[in-house]
Amino acid sequence: MGSLFRSEEVALCQLFLQSESAYTCVSELGELGLVQFRDVSNILILNPDVNAFQRKFVNEVRRCDEMERKLRYLEREIRRDAIPMQDTGDNPEAPMPREMIDLEANFEKLENELKEVNSNAEALKRNYLELTELRHILKKTQVFFDERDGCAGNLDGGSVSLTQNLLPDEAKGPIQLGFVAGVILRERVASFERMLWRACRGNVFLRQAQIEEPLEDPATGEQVYKSVFIIFFQGEQLKLRVKKICEGFRATMYPCPEAPADRREMAMGVKTRLDDLNTVLSQTQDHRHRVLVSAARNLRSWMLKVWKIKAIYHSLNMFNIDTIQNGLIAECWIPVPDLETVQLALRRGTEKSGSLPAILNRLSCVESPPTFHRTNKFTRAFQGLIDSYGVASYREMNPAVYTIITFPFLFAIMFGDLGHGIIMTLFGAWMVWKEKPLSVKKVDSEIWNIFFGGRYIILLMGTFSMYTGIIYNDVFSKSLNLFGSSWHVPFNESTIRDNREIMLDPKQPDQYEGTPYPIGLDPLWQLAANKINFLNSYKMKISIIFGIVHMMFGIILSLFFNRRLNVLCEFIPQVLFMSCLFVYLTLLVFIKWVNYGAGEDVPLVLTPGCAPSILITFINMVLMKGYEEAKGPNSCSAYMYDGQFYLQRMMVVVAVICVPWMLVAKPYFLYRASKQRAMLGTGGVEGAMEETPSTMPVQPAEDHDMSEILIHQGIHTIEFVLGSVSHTASYLRLWALSLAHAQLSEVLWGMVLRIGLSTAGTTGGFAMYFIFAAWATLTVVILVLMEGLSAFLHTLRLHWVEFQSKFYEGQGYAFVPFSFDSILEANESTVTEAK
C-alpha cells in the first residue's frame, strides 16, 4: 500500500565512491532527492573533540560562503537601485569543481569593480556637495559683507545677532574684523549660537541664512537641510576659539574672499566645476547601472549554483575517507522502491567523471529507520497537519489519507453556511486554477504562503461547508425554500385577531403534512420563535454522534499493522469499553428519534412528552440505578425498550472489567515473556507474544524494569478512560461553534444589512450601496476569516483526539533527503526573512 496508508520501507545502505566521481554522484543524488546521508566522518568517530571545521572539504565550503557573501553584496546593490532581477525559472545543474575558479574570479571582478565605482561616486558626490555648499556661501554672504561695517541694527528674516563688543570712546575708530564662513546642519544652529555666545562672551557677530533645497549626504544618501553662517570677530584668540567650536559642531568651513571681485570670480569657477562634476557623475552612475543590470540577469542562476556546490560539499564532509583505496564511504537511508532509481543516478554520476562505478550495498538495520511518506501537491498539506502532532514511528499507520475527508467535514459542521462556503470555495478554486503562475511568483508575505500551501484544504473545507449549509438550510443566516415547506396554517380574520403568536403543532394534520423536507431543515424553522431550542437539541446530538464515530474510527485504525500483544491487551478492551458506554449512548439517541414522534396515530406513551431524557438515562446507567415501572398502559415509561435496565447493567460491568484488563494484561505477558527469555537465553523482550513484521528493524534484546512498565501502562489506561469522557465532551465544540457561527451571521444581517433594506426612497438606494459594502467586508473578515480560523484550530484539536490519543504515537523522526529543491527553498526563505 506504499506510503498512502503507512510509511514506506526504508533501507540502510553503504555507498562506495571514487574520489573523482564523488562530487558528480552526490550532485545527481541531490537532483533526485531520495537519499538521506548519515554522518559517518571518521574525524568525529575517532576523536569527537575535534572541531568539525577540520573536515576534508571545509575549505571548499568556506569558498562557497565567500562567493555567497559577494552575491549578497551584489543583490543589496541591485535592490538599492531598484533594478528588477530576472527569474526565468530555470534550475541550472550544479557546476563542476573546476568551474568554481571561474565563478570566484567573476564574482571577485564584479565586487572589486562595483566597490571602485561606489568609492569614486562617493568621492565625486562629496566634492559636489562641497562645491554646492561653497556656491551657497558665496551667494548668501554678499548681504553679510554689505552690513559688516555696521555690525548692528535690525536683521531681516532668518538672521540672528548676538551682540557687539562695546569699545570706550577713546578707542573708537576703524576696526579690522576677521570672519569665518561655513555650513552647518539646520537643527544644530540654535545650540551652535548659544555655544558661541557663552564661549566668546558675546564678542562675536553671527549671521546665518537657511539653504532652501535639501542636500544629499554622500555617505548615507539621505537628504539633509543645512544653513549658511558667517561669524565676525576681532583677534586671533577669538579666531581659534571660533574654529574649535565649529569643529565641535561638525560645521564645514570654507574660504571666502573678502573682495567682491574675488568672490564673483570664485563663484564662476565653482559653477564651471559643478557642471563638469554633473557630467562625470552621470557617466559614473550610467556605468554602475550597466554593471548592476548585467549582474541582475544572472544573479539568481549564480546563487543557485553556489547553493548547490555548498550543499554537495556539506554532504561530502559527512563521508568517511578511505585512504587506502582513495575513495569515500557513505551511509544513507534510501526508500526500498527507489533503490534502482538511485543506482541509475549513481551510474550517471560516474559516467560524467569517467571513473569506476559506485558500489551500493544494503546493510542490516539495528536502529529504527526514519519515517518517509511520499506526498504530492494535494496530500502534502494534509500530511503537514498530521506531522504537526509529531512524526509517526517507522511503518506506523498514516492517518493523513483519512484526514482528507474527516478534517474538512468536521470543519464544515462548525462552519455550516452555504454562502460562506461558496466564498471559501471560490477562493480555494482560484488558487488551484492559478496554481502554476502563483507558484512561480515569489511572494514575501508569510500569510499568503500559508494560504497558498493549504489551497486544497481550503477548497475542500469550502465544498464541505456548502454541503452542511444545505443540510442546515442556512445561507447568510437565511433559508432557501426550494421544495416548499410542510408546515401551513389556515389563516382567517379571527385567527389573526385572536392569536398574537401561532404555535405550530405537528400533531395537527391541518398544520403539518407529515412529509419531511427533501434535504436539510424545513425553511420555516428559520422564522420559528423556538428555532434556538430546536437547533440546540439537533446539533448537540449530531455532535456527540460524529464525535463517538470519529473516536471509534481512530481506535479501529490501531488494529492495522499492530502487534498481537497490543491487539489482545489494548485494542479489544478499548473497543469493548467504548462500545458498552459511548456507542450505546449514540444508539439511545437513534432509538429516541425513531420510536418517539407526533401524530394522531402515535400512542400516548410514544409522544415526545413521554420520551425519557438521554442524559439522565446515561447517568443512571453508570450509577446502576433503576426506575419505577409504568403504572398503566397509557402512563409514561422511564425505559425505551424491554430489558433495558439489565442490558445496561451488564454493559457497565463489561466496561469496568476492561479497565484492569488494559492495566494488568500487557505487563503480565511482558513479565512472563521476560522469564521465558531468561530461562532460554534467547528471544526478544516480548518473547513469543511479539510478532515483529519483516519490515520492522530488529531491536536488540534489553531488559525492562517491571515498575516502569506498570507505571507506563497505568498512565496509558488512566489517560484512555478519563480521555474517553473528556474527549466526548470535547466534541460538543462542534455544536457550540456551529450555533455561534449561525447566530453571529444572523446578528450581522439584522444589525447591518437590514438597515439598508428597510430604508425607502432615493436615500435608501444610496445608503444601501455603503451598507452592503460594510456588510460584505464584515462578512469576509469576521465570519469567513476569523470564524474560519477558529473552526480550523478546533478541527485540528479534534483530530488530535482521534489520532494522537488513540493510536498515533508520533515518536519517530522524519526522513529528510538530500534534495536541491528543499535546500534552495530553505535558502530562499532565509533570504526573504533577512529582507
TrEMBL record:
Alphabetical GO biological process terms: vacuolar acidification
GO cellular component labels: plasma membrane; vacuolar proton-transporting V-type ATPase, V0 domain
Keywords associated with the record: Coiled coil, Hydrogen ion transport, Ion transport, Membrane, Transmembrane, Transmembrane helix, Transport
Principal subcellular localization: membrane
Topology with respect to the bilayer: Multi-pass membrane protein
InterPro entries membership: V-ATPase_116kDa_su, V-type_ATPase_116kDa_su_euka
Keyword Transmembrane helix: yes
UniProt KW Ion transport keyword: yes
Residue ranges of coiled coil: 57-134
The family this protein is said to belong to: Belongs to the V-ATPase 116 kDa subunit family.
Function: Essential component of the vacuolar proton pump (V-ATPase), a multimeric enzyme that catalyzes the translocation of protons across the membranes. Required for assembly and activity of the V-ATPase.
The protein's name in its UniProt record: V-type proton ATPase subunit a
Species of the source: Hyalella azteca (Amphipod)
